[in-house]
Fold each of these.
Amino acid sequence: MAIDKLIYLAILSVVGVFVFRKMINPSRGPRYHLKTILFAMGVKEIPKTTELGGHIFTSKAKRKWILPWEFDVWEQVDLFENGIVLKRYKKEKSIFFHELYAIEPLLLHSLFVKGKYFGYVFECKDKSNFILNSRDLCDLDIFINELCSLFPSEKGEAVVMDVDKKSEI
């Protein structure tokens, strides 16, 4: 009996020390090249339109099943010439670029790793926002690069800036 208690105590001690050590000094995730896009700071205003235009890129979910109570997880995000379409089950949400205020990056932490994933917050002019995470969507970095290529500095419609791990959750 005493040996069993000592074994349990030793195992709990080792696990406790591991968790405590990881809480104080977590490992760091990979380094990302994040970007910020400000639509309100552009010299020219983005033309208001209700047409999405041609399809450019699609980013799909990594998981096959998205649980009904995960309201902020999207199955698919499509990039078009004039906007973005978010898909979840049979619902679609279209967001045009003239409705956006800014797209800001953020870092997401896992249990023992700081900055393991990255994401972007899409802030709309009507004070609503939505979040896209790299842990949920494949090729989110390619999606953002394609989005940034739609707004070159010569057009003056938006300001695209490189950010080095600016925001954190």
Note: The longest helix spans residues 2-24.
Amino acid sequence: TKFEKNGETWVRFSIKNRQDIEATIERKIVRKARIKRKDREPEERLVILLGVCMGTRYREVEVNLVDRADFNYPMLIGRNFMIGHVLVDPELKYTCEPTCVGVPIP
């Protein structure tokens, strides 16, 4: 849901984790992105800054928003987040819990 806050456009959305715990997040919209889709028309999506903790790595990254309720994964982590920080073994999954220390909470 888009809304105005201090003269800026923000968005409010809810997510659930693997344990089915729901959280509502509010973030300022930083831009709109045009997303190319295979065999379909491009789609315009809102982009926000979101802090992501993977293992001990914390970074703020741009995230485009789309309803992923019918997908296997609630969020995709792209190579821009991982490059130079993460080594991927495609045979493994859920190998570590997030343990970022001193992460700013808005």
Note: The helical segments are 79-82.
Amino acid sequence: MNMLPDLAQQQFALFLLPPRAEGIQELLGRLALRGPVRVIDGGNSIDAFWLSRYIRRHTVQVEDILRNITFARSFTCYQMQTQLRETLEADMPTVVLHMLTNFYDENVELKERLRVLTHCINELYRLRSRSVVAAVVRPDKITDQPDRIALLEHLRESADVTYYTEPPQVIEQLSMF
């Protein structure tokens, strides 16, 4: 993702990113350079080294800027719901990484996962009343599984805006002989 959009206040933005997308690290860096940002990570996906390098390109106060980022991790859909419910409304952006990863647990019925996801979306709506909310999903984890498609569609229909990025194309070198 070369050009990230400027997110509008009071907006719930959904990003559909390919694997290894550095765009989300850039988004976190840009938000942290502006002030405090809250991150809830559903997929243990933060690349702190890349993020600190991005910030260093913009300021020498790397440690101060990194302190602007508050991290929390969730390992189940219920933990995601609890973390969002316990997040206080504040004038700071909230970014939820790999939002649906915790909802892929097939030991939980789809109906229950959709119910919990609806509660999470309602919490995101509550948080967007004071600032930007962004959720990130890796569509390559969806494939052709109907449960996962249903979860993604529910989230996509709830977002104010959705940003899609294409994975980088591999250019095949032609043989000269």
Note: The chain has a mean pLDDT of 86.
Amino acid sequence: MKTATKNKLYEGMFLVDSAQTGADWEGVIAAIKTILRKAEAEIVSIRKWDDRRLAYDINGKNRGTYILCYFKADGGKIQGIEKAVQLSEQIMR
């Protein structure tokens, strides 16, 4: 007997370079969607949350754009999503 796993709703906040979002917004969103799709996550909502000056420089950048995303995924896939975000060159945090 196979048990069905229920996907839970998660909230993800992604920080990307403001200059990059201004130059290639669609590319940044595509990178986030690709990471989530590889983890078989269902994207519920994705939108720009805010553009702010950072408290400290990250990779030499002092401004960042926060992207808020709600998605449904299996809990076992979250660690893989976190690792993919850390390895991504487009996503700062």
Note: Residues 18 and 64 are 5 Å apart (CA to CA).
